[in-house]
Amino acid sequence: MSASTHSPVLKHHFDNLEQQHSAERLGMWMFLATEVMFFSGVFVAYAVYRYFFPGEFQFASSQLVLWVAALNTAFLITSSLTMTLAIRSAQLGDRPALLRNLLLTALLGTAFMGFKAYEYATDIGEKFVPGAMFRQELAEAEGPLAGMSHEQAARYEFPDHHHPAPWAQALAKTNAGKQPGDAGYLSPGRVELFLCFYYTMTGIHGVHIVVGIGCILWLVQQAVAGKIPRENYSTVEVVSLYWHLVDMIWLFLMPLLYLAGAGLARH
Amino acid sequence: MSIIIADEPRAFAPPPPEPPAPARHYLNNAYGVWSWLLTVDHKRIGLLYLVSLTFFFTVGGIAAGLVRINLLGHNAEGHILTDDQYNRAFTAHGVVMLFLFLIPSIPAVMGNFFIPMMIGAKDLAFPKLNLASWYVYMAGAMLLVWSVLVGGIDTGWTLYPPYSSRYSHTSVTPGVFGVFITGFSSIMTGLNIMVTIHKMRCPGMTWGRLPLFCWALYATSFIQLLGTPVVAITLVLLMAERVGGVGIFDPAIGGDPVLFQHLFWFYSHPAVYIMIVPGMGVVSEILTCFSRKNIFGYKAVAWSSVGIAVVGFLVWAHHMYVAGISYYSALLFSFLTMLVAVPSAIKVFNWTATLYRGSITFQAPMLFTLAFLVLFTVGGVTGLFLATLGTDIHLHDTYFVVAHFHFVMVGGMVLAYMAALHFWWPKMTGRMYSDFWSRASAVIIFVGFFLTFVPQFVLGYHGMPRRSPNYLAEFQVYNVMSTAGASILGFGYLLPGIYLTLSLFFGKKASANPWSATGLEWQTPSPPTAFNFERMPVVVCGPYEYAIGVDQLGRGLPEPPGPGSADDPASHDGPTGPSGSRNKETEVVG
Q: What is residue A146's predicted lDDT score, i.e. its pLDDT?
């Protein structure tokens, strides 16, 4: 490897580029293992509660904005493709294509975050957040249904379809005329529990997306500065490994959070 | 050095000439604060960790002292702390010692410093990540220490909700955030060491020739990588619950606090193996060197480290026998806990067999190591009492548990850390410390430790609960004994602080290989130069060829130190010393 010994991208403590690149890749794979374990903790917790409280989880899931999640899934899958194309461009030493693919990936990631922000705003606007707001909104919906039987409540039309929030109307109607413990009764607390998962899981995932976008923009800066020559393409590969993992975690979050209740109509 | 095997004298290659002390070594090749704070040299980062850990060890030690002094009186009249302050003091002791001292201890100090040198590399695979890990550690540690000093944390180090979520009005949130941050430093160190061992070994350094210290740290890194993220997410969920006032461990909305215990112990039980396995690696290095024997059962010792790391992940619920888990899972976890004792016992038996017919000398590193063997064995065996379902119901949450894990964590890991520090101090600093005072400190620590914790076994067996400031009057005598022992122990810890510091200024200059050890790290000058090796080493031997007296480069060893060395007038006295064994028929074992 005498030729590569003098490569400007070879760090002093490695013997050759091959060793350097394989160390970088192994390091990233091990980091990905830690990421998998990080998310696995919350996946396990989700699985436990989903098993305990299937009805509430199905209901709460059905109240999320499915079309945003579907669109976001499309964004992320496409971004995985552009990221992989970026590796190919780096291997070929095609800098314009590398820049194009990296920027496209960052753009798709940003679009994901944009729609995610829109979705959060919708949820918060509907007071679909665990805590005092949730209970207050639900109490407002339960008010007009007080004393009605389950059948009467099912036929009741709220004067305003958007106030109290649709989820609160649906939950109040489901529970009208029932006591905790009755068949079909949905505990509001457990709906809140689902929401705790929804916000922490998507929140942590969002942080990972933002970090990923940051790394991709760093790659762009490196590529512009000419620091990603062909023999150093593994830098792009290492970032792409991370990006793919973040995408893949979304592919698990999507069905767990959004499709669990897709069989129920939203309104 | 010649060894007579049967009647035929065989002369081996003479020891390498003493390398000239380098004018520029890693300590003096740059000066100034920034040369330390921005260094990417693994050896300097090791020293940064050493200084920081010493500081946090002192903080945790002071908290322990407060707890022990408070326990002199059996009721509020004899107490120096209020009950609230007592809760904060033992929590401070727990979180600081565990998260800031024991978990980073040997991996971050000795691992950083010696893993590259032992495998013949110039540095760890990711030097900048290594420096970052120190900064991350310091940021988290400062936050945690600030939390325990200013607001206090009163939950115990286990942070169980709803103590820690709904009912604690102390600085739990910043403290937990501090622990969360230091977790990343642990992951960074583990990842760095693992990649380094995989990718940076010099020619000839096969897995079968890897020093057992590297095997131990490899296993440790495996736990750090797979365990730490789980506690990280658990702490994130805990913080979210505290900040948001509602969360997934909140029973008010149907959440399950026992789930926290599962997730917490999924990391925190393997974490006790993060704390002990590196110590086991140190013991394998020192025991062979000071008994001049090959390790007995290299493969068994190496793979038992990995075995502990793997099986250690499957035993967490033995902390929860009384938390309402089902009998069947308790039974299973009890069985698995017994199983994890097997690789630990394999190690202890192999070490004992290594000592058998060795030419043992008793310098300070060896004394600490022998103390480790005794104390770790006691700690391990009492662990089996707790692994047994029936006895655990009786002993759960008593001082028996406290005594058990202090035997393993302090008697095991802290003594291994001291052993490692004394073993490698000449290499790290280029100076020898006082022989007499170092041996004295080893003996004092051993005696103080025994006196501190043996009474606690008795207390626990008779039912004194842990974490309680008040106790029955008849327990007072044991508590006074324990506090007396703790004072001796504290004095024992002060001594190395003094004589090691003095050695930096007045110590005799250390030779390159003062213990006549075989590892690659001893083939560099003391202290080493910035890139460790002048040219790439090529390994031709296993790591512990003491029987035939060659180092890993296949060269002879210098005269071993101690009573056998040539400048010691007592060296030619008895047939049992090393000089005696040199002249008698030598049995090559292992």
A: 86
Which range is most confident: A113-117, A173-177, B74-78, B80-84?
A113-117
Please tell me the number of Cα atoms within 13 Å of B399 on its side-chain side.
22
Q: Enumerate the residues of chain B whose CB falls inside 8 A of the CB of residue A196.
A: 240-241, 244, 246-248, 253, 255
Rg over alpha carbons for chain B, rounded to the nearest Å, is 24
| CB distance A56 to A194 below 8 Å | yes
Q: What is the number of domains present in chain A?
A: 1
Buried b (16+ CB within 10 A) or exposed e, A64-97: bbbebbeebbebbeebbebbbbbbebbeeeebee
Query: What value does the mean pLDDT take over residues A128-138?
Result: 93
pLDDT at B573: 40
Please give the residue range of the domain that contains residue A118: 29-44+53-132+187-258
Determine the distance in angstroms separating the CA of B569 from the nearest CA of chain A, rounded to an integer: 46
What pTM value is reported for the model?
0.92
* Best CA proximity match to B98, nearest among B234, B317, B269, B341: B269
CA distance A83 to chain B (A): 24
Q: Where are the alpha helices (DSSP H) in B407-475?
A: 415-429, 435-461
pLDDT of residue A66 exceeding 70: yes
Peptide bond into B578 cis (omega under 30): no
**What tokens does B551 get?**
């180092």
**Is it the case that residue B580 has pLDDT exceeding 70?**
no
How high is the mean pLDDT of chain B? 91
In the prediction, which pLDDT does A184 show? 87
Q: For domain B42-250+258-582, give the CATH superfamily.
A: Cytochrome c oxidase-like, subunit I domain (1.20.210.10)
The gap between the terminal CA atoms of chain A, to the nearest Å, is: 66
Q: Is B463 left (phi over 0), alpha (psi -120 to 50) or beta?
A: left
Q: Spell out which residues of chain B touch residue A48, defining contact as CB-CB under 8 Å.
A: 256, 259
Measured CA to CA, the distance from residue A231 to residue A168 in angstroms comes to 58
pLDDT band at B9 (very low <50, low <70, confident <90, very high): very low
Over residues B496-518, mean pLDDT = 94
Give me the residue from A40, A193, A204 closest to B255, CB to CB: A193
Find the CATH number of the domain harbouring A118. 1.20.120.80
Report whether B562 contacts B576 (CB < 8 A).
no
Alpha-carbon distance A159 to nearest alpha carbon in chain B (angstroms): 30
Please say if the pLDDT value at position A193 is more than 90. yes
Q: Would you place residue B562 in the very low, low, confident or very high pLDDT band (cuts 50, 70, 90)?
A: low
Residues whose CB falls within 8 Å of the CB of residue B366, separated by 6 or more in sequence, listed in order = B286, B287, B290, B291, B360, B419
Q: Establish if A221 belongs to a structural domain.
A: yes
